[in-house]
Design brief:
This protein has 260 residues and is of the alpha/beta class. α7 runs parallel beside α8 and α8 runs antiparallel to α9. Strands 4, 5, 6, 7, 8 and 9 form a six-stranded mixed beta sheet that branches. The protein has a three-stranded parallel beta sheet with strand order 1-2-3, sandwiched between helices. The protein is built from nine helices and nine strands. The protein is globular and about 50 Å long. Helices cover 38% and strands 19% of the residues. The longest helix is centred in the last third of the chain and has 15 residues.
Length: 260
């Protein structure tokens, strides 16, 4: 479980507690992206108590994509989950997904999520775009193997990395990675995961909660000049279609609509 962190001292403990509410044998890697608060101090307290947590520190702030890539280069686990430092992983979420991935020998699994939109309220449903796609494709099935050729609309679900678990051998085989853009760095890995896999396991349960509280400083709610980094992120994703005539023939029209 790879967690990039930047100035998140007030929430990183809750996030780590949520990840630890899974019984699966896992290593948790927190990459501190040159925080100026006491994020590292809190993580080090967890490191002292839990042998499976380690802390990597960036000397300078690089953005979440670079931080994730740095940690990714160091892992040798069978599976990998990228989690945000302020999100809440469901109790037993990993324990639920991995046996299904084992039994189906699948490289990519995705699951539904909730969104916490107020600091003190209950979480609500996922974004309307995503909810409509999940509802229309899966209906009331608990899980399903999704063929991208017949359900390409999953490509335009929001490109979050934390509602997917990937097999590490798939990551290595396809050179899967995050963009170095500081905003929308997850467009590239989202499209690359689904297109390279071709089919994936969709689990029709909400297994994580994304924190999207107005007024908080986070990439999702950044709308100043930093948002222009999206053009670099889109160029990085565009290269997937330049390198693969198959991807271009099948999915490029969808990408053009997405990009517009």
């Amino acid at each position: 479980v790879i967690i990039p962190a930047f100035n998140i001292a007030n929430l990183i403990g809750e996030t780590l507690d949520s990840v630890l509410r899974n019984e699966t044998d896992m290593d948790i890697v927190v990459v501190d992206d040159a925080s100026t608060d006491n994020t590292c101090d809190i993580v080090e307290q967890y490191v002292a108590r839990h042998a499976n947590i380690r802390l990597m520190r960036n000397a300078m702030n690089t953005g979440p994509g670079v931080a994730r890539n740095r940690a990714l280069a160091t892992i040798d686990s069978e599976y990998c989950l990228f989690h945000d430092a302020d999100d809440i992983l469901g109790a037993g979420a990993v324990d639920t997904v991995l046996p299904l991935m084992d039994s189906t020998n699948i490289d990519v699994a995705a699951f539904r999520y909730d969104v916490l939109r107020t600091a003190d309220g209950p979480p609500g449903e996922m974004s309307p775009i995503d909810k409509n796609i999940w509802d229309n494709v899966l209906g009331d099935r608990e899980s399903a193997m999704i063929d991208l050729d017949s359900a390409a609309q999953f490509l335009v679900t929001i490109n979050y990395p934390w509602n997917k678990i990937l097999r590490t051998s798939f990551i290595r085989r396809t050179n899967w990675h995050f963009s170095t853009a500081r905003i929308n760095e997850d467009i590239l890995p989202h499209w690359a995961a689904y297109m390279n896999a071709g089919h994936f396991l969709a689990i029709n349960s909400s297994l994580t909660t994304h924190r999207l509280v107005p007024g908080r400083e986070q990439h999702t709610s950044t709308f100043d000049e930093r948002r222009l980094e999206m053009f670099k992120a889109l160029r990085d994703a565009e290269k997937l279609f330049e390198d693969s005539p198959i991807f271009r023939a099948k999915f490029y029209p969808i990408f053009i609509i997405f990009k517009a």
